[in-house]
Amino acid sequence: MAGEKVTISVIKADIGSIAGHHKVHPDTILAASRVLVEAKKRGVIKSFYITHVGDDLQLIMTHFKGVDSPEIHETAWKAFQEATKVAKDLGLYAAGQDLLSDAFSGNIRGMGPGVAEMEFVERPSEPVVVFMADKTEPGAFNMPLYRIFADPFNTAGLVIDPRMHDGFIFQVLDVYEGKIVELSMPEEMYDLLALIGTPSRYIIKRVFRKSDREIGAVVSSERLSLIAGRYVGKDDPVMIVRAQSGFPAVGEVLEPFSFPHLVAGWMRGSHHGPLMPVGLKDAKMTRFDGPPRVVALGFQIKNGELIGPADLFDDPAFDETRRTAQVITDYMRRHGPFMPHRLGPEEMEYTTLPDVLEKLKQRFKPVEMGYKPHVKAPEEPHD
Ligand code: F6R
Ligand code: MG
Ligand code: MG
How many other CB atoms sit within 10 Å of the CB of residue 234? Predict the structure, then answer.
């Protein structure tokens, strides 16, 4: 219907995977598909595409029920539950790990799965790109989003397309305080960078076009909010970006990913590593449970229907990026348990530090003035 708003919802969860945290089993995808086929028949959703990146099951859905619709969230929850049943039957690893609660209470946010949703009036031709990353955190999209919507060295349109020349508004979430702030580009560029350069705390949540406040991008950030009053930490993120005709072109949207920048996550959610763009066939985690990877699927939305996808990083144009990422992987790995490969103590998902400190408590002695080592240094030889 003309003027009717369509919603695209990307909802993801790790409900268990094959061979450790490596990749989703096809039978769990099948189980989730059955639920979405049923929802489509009942007219709850208009269309869907199910896929996976690493150990995360990804539900990409279009519908007319708006953002945060209880019906849509319940459908996703059911799909994850059915997939979890299969994961348990097959003895898959960490079966049901992201379904933090047994009962659905109207909104999937805060229950474990990650959600990125946006609602808009469909343009005559509506290209969108869905990014899905594994073994990293939502702040991993800070640098690419900045480049896409604020960096004229990446996005030529900011300079030479009159429809984008006014710039974009960035919504930034402070995940420690649970607060959101809006900054206007390019005037407040330095303020924005002062925040988003700390991607573990300040996360770009949404981007709007300044001239008409049309939404351009949204990132998932559920786990980063306080779940059950506790900061839970990282979550493998998803992002939706609208492209073309007054938004950055698809080529401008993909371009930042040609630089495999360092992101937090990787092994045990406790290491920095390069973000490697891959096609779906390579969306699996191996080296040190990584390296962190990102997939980009391009769709057209027509009358609310998802047309596609195009597997955008499945392309030799990103071979050199992947090779660079391999070199960085080797380089970072050689640091072993040392920072900055290993994350700082406040960001690690696994740590033994409190136990080690407790064990050594009695053995830590005050450093006295004039402290001398017990072992005597050998005398200086005299001529
Ligand atoms: C990181 C991740 C994996 C696991 C690692 C240890 O997000 O999922 O790197 O942290 O494989 O897993 P457990 O503790 O389940 O043996
Ligand atoms: Mg996992
Ligand atoms: Mg994962």
Answer: 22
